[in-house]
Specification:
Radius of gyration: 24 Å
Distance between the termini: 50 Å
Number of domains: 3
Number of helices: 15
Number of strands: 5
Length: 335
């Protein structure tokens, strides 16, 4: 598994707590996607399971380390939904709990890694609670999450909360420049669109995905003068509609920043002419209303089973057309 330079400090802090006996048996690791929380959890797991630790590092040579490197350590359990499913049910939780109450096969620690605790069904989360409260000796739970508010309060209360923040923007840009040489403005935009998470930014900068975003921007730029927002339907009506709506909402929010003279804080640094175009055609109140409508639409697309995606998007786009038709040009904000 890859390691990332911005993980060094949090790794040392966490390992230091466990090395001095202050580490919690249940760690709730809150991080934005693309910040490397899986790598941090794996590194911590290796240290916890290592039988001959070398200070802050696992030795890499003992039998436990070799098993971890081979990916088949019997006391390291990774919990994830079955392929094709979006939730983790109670049965895998029961199975791993049963294993935890037997002796560690390598005589050391037992570690459970669950990358997204939000995927637990309510029954699965409840099944985990008692073990989290009274775990077997030398057993450690590492729970990752994107949105802690979606977890049961009783589950959160049994864990030590740890927030893995995105690295400093300059550090993120330096790493991106090494991984994906290219336009610095594009790099800055990709990083800001993902709340500073460098790995997610690197994925966005891959040629096919970056072209998809550019196609959405071009379609929006062409649609605005004609008030033909329905022409955006082909670029929005896609399996990855949630990400495309994120791109769209980011442009609309940047237009509000432009109206307030805060262009330097815009996310889409590579699309300033388009952002200015949006800012000049819609008032701040209209932009806020449209953003809220799109966020509601995105939530429905993600949460309602069997929703008609094309129909929902069409309804939103037609409503936007009506708003544009009724709006006059917007005067620039004077500071």
């Amino acid at each position: 598994m890859n390691w990332y330079p911005w993980l060094n400090a949090p790794y040392r802090q966490l390992v230091g707590q466990y090395a001095t006996g202050r580490g919690h048996h249940a760690l709730l690791l809150h991080a934005a996607a693309g910040n490397g929380d899986d790598a941090l959890a794996y590194g911590l797991s290796r240290w916890l399971i290592c039988q001959r630790r070398n200070g802050e590092k696992s030795c890499g040579e003992c039998h436990s380390c070799r098993l971890m490197l081979a990916g088949n350590h019997p006391d390291y359990h990774v919990l994830a939904p079955e392929k094709g499913k979006s939730s983790l049910g109670i049965e895998p939780i029961r199975q791993v709990i049963e294993k935890l109450y037997s002796h560690a096969q390598q005589g050391g620690a037992k570690v459970i890694w669950l990358a997204q605790a939000e995927q637990l069904t309510e029954a699965a989360a409840n099944a985990l609670l008692k073990t989290l409260e009274e775990p077997p000796e030398k057993t450690y739970f590492l729970l990752g999450c994107r949105e802690p508010s979606r977890l049961l309060a009783t589950l959160r209360s049994r864990c030590l909360y740890w927030h893995l923040a995105s690295p400093d923007e300059q550090l993120g840009l330096q790493w991106l420049n090494r991984q994906t040489p290219g336009n610095p403005v594009d790099h800055l935009t990709a990083l800001r669109l993902h709340d500073g998470a460098p790995i997610a930014a690197e994925r966005l900068l891959q040629p096919e995905r970056w072209q998809q975003r550019n196609a959405l921007c071009a379609a929006l730029s062409a649609a605005l003068p004609q008030h033909d927002m329905l022409s955006l339907l082909p670029v929005l009506n896609h399996e990855e509609v949630a990400e495309r709506l994120h791109w769209l909402c980011a442009l609309l929010v940047d237009a509000m920043k432009w109206q307030q003279g805060a262009q330097g804080y815009a996310l889409n640094q590579d699309q300033q002419p388009l952002v200015h175009q949006l800012a000049s055609r819609l008032s701040s109140a209209s932009l806020q209303q449209i953003v809220q409508q799109w966020l509601t639409c995105r939530h429905r697309l993600l949460s309602v089973v069997g929703v008609n995606r094309e129909l929902l998007l069409t309804e939103q786009l037609l409503g936007w057309e009506q708003m544009l038709g009724a709006a006059g040009p917007v005067q620039p904000h004077s500071l």
